[in-house]
Amino acid sequence: MAFGDPHYRTFDGRLLHFQGSCSYVLAKDCRGADFSVHVTNNDRGRSGVAWTQEVAVLLGEVAVRLLQGGGVTVDGRPVALPFLQEPLLYVERRGGTVILHAQPGLQVLWDGQSQVEVSVPGSYRGQICGLCGNFNGFAQDDLQGPEGLLLPTEAAFGNSWQVPEGPGPGRPCSKGREVDPCRAAGYRARREANARCGVLKSSPFSRCHTVVPPEPFFAACVYDLCACGPGSLADTCLCDALEAYASHCRQAGATPAWRGPTLCVVGCPLDRGYVFDECGPPCPRTCFNQHVPLGELSAHCVRPCIPGCQCPAGLVEHEAHCIPPEACPPVLLTGDQPPRDLLSPSQEPRGAP
Fold first, then answer.
1. Residues with Cβ within 8 Å of residue 1, at least 6 apart in sequence
2. pTM of this prediction?
């Protein structure tokens, strides 16, 4: 996982800070070359720090790019979601998250801003490399470079995974270096960052503390707020850090109800019937799948739940609106209709933080 400015949580659970603003291998099948996931970072005009700008997923000869704002291109061409290229690739949007599924069992989730999660099946254990580590069950040896050697610092490790493509000739990138933004920002900034990030250790997240220790995410949050400085950017950085922790909590089976009227509010189009749900179904009911048995529908879902704009109970989604099931148009099922068409959700609006 990559989040914030940016931090990398490896497959084996180690949290790294790396601030290079070039392009890097995030996770790669270094044995069979089934896939490679790259990230391109951007400093957003602030020296010494960076954020994930976009994600590239390479699947053989197919190149998928996940862009800022949630746009997607396949082999350089913009595509509308959901997008299916059998048998290799399926890309969909759920809530504010773009989800890529690939044939080897690879799954990539991109929030369209700065957070990306990569998951692979256990069959890849010990054959992954890149900024997400080697997936061998031991966090101690995650700082391995492309040659398989352990590197002395997180900056050296991150720079070793740089790949040629980058922001382009007009925007030269910068290598990562060891930085302490809180030391540069001063005591007052560190104190304020500690206070604001304290919500991670408070009651809204209490149900998660026993399954996902908050301390590494608290440290990353403080780091980010010192780096982001005052103003609205600090609010964005705080929400990124809190959502990263909440995401790990959801994966561990604990869903914190942490958002508030003034904390990381997500706006949903109420005029079309949507409401925000911290733990909504990744495969909600639509006019096309409302008759599919729930168990079969759930079998095609990627995770227990995701945050985002959802239709309330009793309504189904159709053409970016929530409507009663009886208002759905007739659906003609034919013998040659792909079952995935029934299981794929329709397009729905993204909530604006």
1. 8, 9, 115, 116, 117, 118, 132, 244, 247, 248
2. 0.75
